[in-house]
Predict the 3D structure of the following.
Amino acid sequence: MSIASLGYLGFKVSDIDAWTAFASGVLGLMAAPAPEGERRFRADEQAWRLSIRAGDDDDLDYIGLEVADAAALAAVADRLRAAGVGVSDNDTDLAEARGVSGLIVCRDPQGLEVEIYYGATARYEVPFASPAGVGGFVTGDQGIGHVVLAAADIGAARRFYADLLGFRLSDIIRMRVSPTMAIDLEFYRCNPRHHTLALVPAPARKRLHHFMLQAQQLDDVGFALERAQGAGAAITASLGRHTNDHMLSFYARTPSGFEVEFGHGARTVDEAAWRVARHDKTSLWGHHPPAAR
């Protein structure tokens, strides 16, 4: 029994008001009720998907990984403990705060808090309504999107996410950082989404390079690009299509400095037919940095 999806993301940010405007006005997420000192946002019928609270980190604070039920949660907890990973459970206060039926908490090799849970609160009686008019996001069994994390010790990160949590390698992009040096970015799935997690084998100032939201409609990518430009957000990569998941997307800098990818049209994985591949470019076309345009 393994992870089913990326359920939610928590950030510590230095400018909550800027983030609130960005999440609602640029990304088109819907404000949701939240505990004191926290702001939450919806992308679908789930009670919340993104959370922000005050802090100097301006980085990813925790991730929530969903499993199917209590039995799956217990199985994952046993597997983590058998491998020597510290696991905290029976935290009913945290489960209540997150709006889930049960959860365990551990940390990945980079120190990121990983919350594994089941039974998230659904709010079908209050339909999702984007304040920016986004027609909907691709979620459901694919979860909220994906995250790309820095992994100074790629072997330890691989053992944690793949061997213990059950993420499966989709493919690799060999990215050349100089004429004589290249690094392999590893992309992992846990459901039909091409990748829910990507690992960059290098240290970085922040844990998170970017997170991704996938719109159901192509035009929503264009509208989001115009909203980002109108709000003065830096466009860090122009419109383009990736080689591996075929996502058509652009990248913008969030108020915390890390990036968000806003896209549409990614292919999904057929487990019976999928084969791991290596790519030598990140994009088929586009995704140019500002200076390259």
About this structure: The mean pLDDT is 96. The two ends are 46 Å apart (CA to CA). The chain has two domains: 5-118, 140-292.
